[in-house]
Amino acid sequence: MGDLRKTLGGRIRTARVRLSLSQQQLADEAGFSAPQIISQIEKGEREVKAWELVNLARVLRMDVSQLLSTEEPKPLAPVLWRKYPERDRELIEADFLQRCEQYALLEKLCEVVAGRQLPKVSMNSATMNLQDAEQLGENVWKEFELGSQPATCLAGVLEERYGVKIWYQNLEEGSAASTKGSFGAAILMNSTEAPWRRNFSFGHELFHLLTWDSIPPQLLIESPGLWERIERLASAFASSLLLPSDDVAQVFESHIKDDRVVYTDLIEVAREFGVSTEALLYRLLNLGSIDRDDVDSLLADSDFRDLDRSVRLSDWWKPPAIPERFVRLAFTAYQKGKLSRPRFAQYLNTSLIDLTDTLLEYGLDDRKDYQTSVRASRR
Predict the structure, then answer these.
(1) pLDDT over 70, % of the chain
(2) Which residues of 246-345 form beta strands (DSSP E)?
(3) Interval 47-106: pLDDT, tens
(4) Phi, psi of 352, rounded to the nearest 5 degrees
(5) Which residues face 190 on adjacent strands?
(6) Which CATH number fits domain 2-73: 1.10.260.40, 3.40.50.2000, 3.40.50.150, 3.30.70.1350?
(7) List of residues 6+ apart from 268 with CB closer than 8 A
């Protein structure tokens, strides 16, 4: 019994330190009266009651089974950020990775398999240049069949066709992030950013997922110079992916009158492709459709910036707190009896009392039977 207590205590301490939580913080969030109790638990000097274990697992972003397992937990998958949050990074990453594990479990319970696997792209970080990254973007655009307005469908294609787990979080700091693990590929998106910036971030993070196996992620995290170079390649890839050269040129040229394009038309082209006006301008610059001086002048023009903000305001939308695909999977698993009602509510970040109302927000009703079947035959 003493060895089990010490094993559990050591596991709790390791998880707490990984999240940069003090014993006081863990005690407060898990409902203990004093940090000394956490100290006793971590030393294996105190037995942990069932309800205490549940609270500890919740705060530590772990499943109870992981704390009680006789096997050492596997290292967490690395998370690559486009822009790191300055605060609570460890907690944000732990939340994200836990959600990815839950997502994968729901797919398993529902026997859902992605229709296609994300391709793996081999790259040499020392020799790949911006033109190579742009060409890769064009190739992926064709392979993914994203059409003339890729930004409008990219997230859906990644999620539904390739099984990429997309999670949104309201972040005060930081931008998008990506990861790969036993759960598959995943993207964390800052829901507070403008929709057109999120679109670009999806393209940016896709580059990292495609090239994940070419460069050890930990090397990128530990090498700022290399990371900055790869980030530039990822942005070039995203620009090419979301703004196909022929389509952009055709739409842009349709707005040219007397060798000029008015401000509002530039903004409308950016809206049509679902990207920021800044991203469009740099793409047009790379395609030779506009001069560097004009790009710099526009971006420095306060009137242009004000007009851009006012026109794009109508495009603003905020994603749901929990992805619809995740909710559908959880609902299906619950309906099939593979997910308990308490766990179902936990996955949706709601209480048992509010579960029905939460589901109704997603167009689902747990008071109805969705398992009625019809006769079917194979061809």
Answers:
(1) 97
(2) none
(3) 899 899 999 999 999 888 888 887 777 888 999 998 888 888 999 999 999 999 999 999
(4) -60, -35
(5) 169
(6) 1.10.260.40
(7) 255, 311
Contact between 127 and 201 under an 8 Å Cβ cutoff? The reply is: no
Torsion of CA 56, 61, 67, 70, to 10 degrees: -170
Report how far apart, in Å, the C-alpha atoms of 48 and of each of 37, 43, 56, 203, 346 are.
10, 12, 10, 46, 22
Count H helices and E strands in the chain, helices first. Answer: 19, 4
**Predicted TM-score (pTM) of this structure:** 0.90
In 3-state terms the chain splits into helix, strand, coil percentages (rounded to 5) of 55, 5, 40
Sheet with 184-190: list strands edge to edge.
79-81, 177-181, 184-190, 165-169
Q: What is the pLDDT of residues 145-182, one digit of tens each?
A: 999 999 999 999 999 999 999 999 998 877 899 999 99
